[in-house]
DUF1203 domain-containing protein
Amino acid sequence: MHLIFEPIATQTVRALRAGGPDANGQPAERLKAEGTGNPCRHCLDLIPEGAEMLVCAHRPFPEPQPYAETGPIFLCAGDCAPWTGEGVPPVLRASPDYLLKGYGADHRIVYGTGGVVPAEAVEARARALLSQPEVAFVDVRSARNNCFLTRMRPAV
């Protein structure tokens, strides 16, 4: 199974860069990236230290509901291309492990799918989850802070 790593939609990122409201109805904060732990959810790469970045609330679900987690994310403040690359994006090679959760087509967690896995096992675990008929997509989050990183789906 070939996997697709989905970046946050360019339209959403453009709106946030232009001062539009985040998931909490606020404009994004503008900060300088410090260190190497600032993953952009659009290009799925790390924001270079000292570069301007946006910090905002994001809910990667179409509408609020009990399983629609909202949390902080980082974005490059300047233009960056959405991830379209092959293989595992850089944001999933920067930490020793990640939290994966499977969701159904109704955007609700499929119980029993959540777990922290080593970075080198992310693809294998996502494939195993996506082989379950009730799992439509897998969200990858920080194992340390629970921040949303990317969504994985099988290529069609």
In short: The helical segments are 10-17, 122-130. The chain has a mean pLDDT of 96. Residues 21 and 27 are 5 Å apart (CA to CA).
